[in-house]
Amino acid sequence: MICYTAIFTANIIFVRLLTKKIIEMQTYLIQRNLPGAGKLTLADRKAIAQRSCEVINELGQQNIQWLHSYITRDNIWCIYRAEDEAFLKEHAKKGNFPCDDIREVFATLSPATAEVLV
Asked: b vs e for 7-17, b when ≥16 Cβ sit within 10 Å of the residue's Cβ?
C-alpha cells in the first residue's frame, strides 16, 4: 500500500507522495472461544461487529482488516488480514474479545480449485 495526499490548487491536482511504505498483509484465521456463541442474538452480533470496527479504525485499516466471521455453537471463527499477529492481538485486547488461537492462512481450497489449469 502506498499512501498519497492530494493538494488542490486552481482545479489542478498535484499528488505528493507522503509515505512509501509497502505493507504486506497476511490472511489469518482467529479462533475465539465463546460458550453459547451460536445463541447470540442479532443485537449481540451487531454490538460485537460495531466494537470490532471501532477498534480497527483506531488501529488503522492499513494495518488490520476484518473480512468476515463464522459463528458455531461455542466459537467465533474470524478471517482477518493484518500486517502481523501483533495487530490481531492488540485488536482483541482493545475490544475485549477472546483470542484463543491465531493461524496464518497460506492458501484456499474450494471446488474452483478442481478447475484450475496447472
From this structure: eeeeeeeeeee
